[in-house]
Write a structure and sequence with these properties.
147 residues; mainly beta; five-stranded antiparallel sheet; 1 helix; 10 strands; 7% helix
């Protein structure tokens, strides 16, 4: 892993309080890589937190890079998952969406490649994404097949 200097770009820090804001965070974490152990659900605190190795989509095409980042959701009342293998070596986060319920509540849906998903019921949208520090060169830019 090659460490890049801090001059490569400013660390990202975003907050989401509605579905539109959440879509921005989702775009920034598309193709983030994490391990199941990087997901922490603390029901007593209503907190769902993830440590991500997010692809930095603002990096130059010839210098792809990843950043260590934290993503957390507050006011979470319940978390369930489907198709997320706790023994998996890595998970690839594709998108985060919001399914509205009785306003302002609803459910966050984190979708992973291979069909896995996490559903987190929330009182309202309260999410934060923050880069934590290390930046390193990625092997390549993520690519997706289009139909």
């Amino acid at each position: 892993m090659s460490q890049l200097t801090s001059d490569d770009s400013t660390p990202l820090g975003l907050m989401a309080l509605d579905a539109e804001d959440l879509a921005v965070i989702s775009a920034h974490v598309q193709d983030a890589v994490l391990r199941p152990a990087d997901i922490v659900w603390r029901p007593g605190d209503g907190l769902l937190a993830l440590t991500l190795r997010r692809f930095d989509w603002s990096s130059p095409p010839d210098q792809p890079r990843r950043r260590l980042s934290a993503l957390h959701f507050g006011r979470v009342s319940r978390v369930v998952h489907k198709g997320v293998d706790p023994a998996a070596q890595a998970l690839n986060l594709l998108a985060i969406s919001f399914e509205p319920g009785e306003a302002p509540s609803g459910a966050l849906r984190l979708v992973f490649s291979g069909g896995g998903a996490i559903r987190a019921e929330v009182e309202c949208i309260e999410a934060q994404l923050k880069d934590l520090g290390p930046v390193w060169e990625a092997i390549r830019r993520p690519a997706h097949e289009t139909d």
